[in-house]
Amino acid sequence: MIVKIPQEQINKILELFHQGFKTGEIAQIIAIHPKDMWEIFQDLNLPYKKGSRAIPVTTEQIQQIKDLAAQEITMVKIAKTINLPVAVVKRIYLANNLIPRGKKLKPLTEEQDQQVIELFDKKYGVRGIAKIMKISNVAVKQAFDRLNLDNSDRKYPVQIDHDKIITEKTCNTCKITKNIDDFRKKKRKIKTWNRVVQTYEGCCKDCERNYNRNGKPVRPKQPWYGQQIKKDNLSDEEYIKLYRRKYTKNREMHDPAYVLRGMVSFTIGSALRRNSSSKKGDSILKFLPYTMKELKEHLESLFEPWMSWQNWGRYIVTEWDDNNSTTWKWSIDHITPQSDLPYTSMSDDNFKKCWALSNLRPLSAKQNNLEGVRRLRHKDNSEKS
Fold first, then answer.
1. Residue 299: which of 256, 362, 355, 257 has the closest Cα?
2. Is the dihedral of CA 262, 265, 267, 273 positive or negative?
3. Where are the domains of the chain?
4. Start-end of H helices in the chain
5. For 277-313, what is each residue's pLDDT tens digit?
6. In whole angstroms, how far apart are CA 105 and each of 99, 109, 113, 143?
7. What would the pLDDT profile of 49-108 be if each residue is shown by its tens digit?
8. Taking Cα atoms as reference points, which of 42, 39, 49 lies closest to residue 18?
């Protein structure tokens, strides 16, 4: 022994070691450097236990652990009873050669052995039997050895229904029980077993056509998508411009709500600029109490028989014929004019009154133009007088 210490300290080291103390704890108690303690453990042929943060255990606590272990109380319950960490109790178990016992590790009864045999015949494995009987995997393995049940050929779980062959399945979306042929097959790879298992989709084929993966209805393909633009011999900027131009043109032809948003946004921005203000980058939809779809439906409910979204436009004198309704156009009219409700921001009360649904209506473009001219002339005459 390179490090010379008295025999009393050696006896103390052995006593503390068998009580479960780690090397760092013993070094602190006896006041020896940890490196010297390592040499002492080598000379005494003791395993070097690293760590110095373990909680010291008294002789009374060790005796109490032994008494509780003899009563077949689990290690976790003993730790709670003595108010010690489970790792410390486990250390005492190993130091004193105590066998962990508990309810799950008790020998199985004859009835339980018979149940194990029945479940084994139904192709259940160790984990399946342990889960059903609420016992540990170790107890099931011991029962297998005792009952001479060989499960070596069951390396992977058998994919069958233990009581019946699956012929029907309930759809997760429509909640209707249908034949298994109405569900699409899929393959799922289980990494733990390194095996590909064949299963069925949770959603039936009919619901897959009508709903997406999130369970929401699938939107039909919109007509404004149009044909795909080829990118041959085009730069990225040219391609983006051409795509946006084509998309906007097709969208305006088939979606009145899209055109309404652009028109309303432009009109509001012009009104704000006339009053030395702007939208400040905000969206009009944050301040309008309705959506463009609701505005579209509101205007359609007030359509006259000759009105449609195809003849929405401006009044052009050369194209208008009072005797031919196919040349007529209509526009959106404010019942209370915008000039009577000036606003400098989209949060003003006048803005809400001006753009309320009750203040908007479809009106003949010619009539709307004539009323606007009369209103301006009346305003000019009143200012001159």
1. 362
2. negative
3. 168-210, 256-384
4. 7-18, 23-30, 34-43, 59-70, 75-82, 86-95, 110-121, 126-133, 137-147, 205-210, 236-254, 256-274, 292-301, 349-354, 365-384
5. 888 888 888 899 899 999 999 999 999 988 888 888 8
6. 11, 12, 14, 11
7. 554 344 667 788 888 888 888 887 888 888 888 888 787 888 788 778 787 765 446 678
8. 49
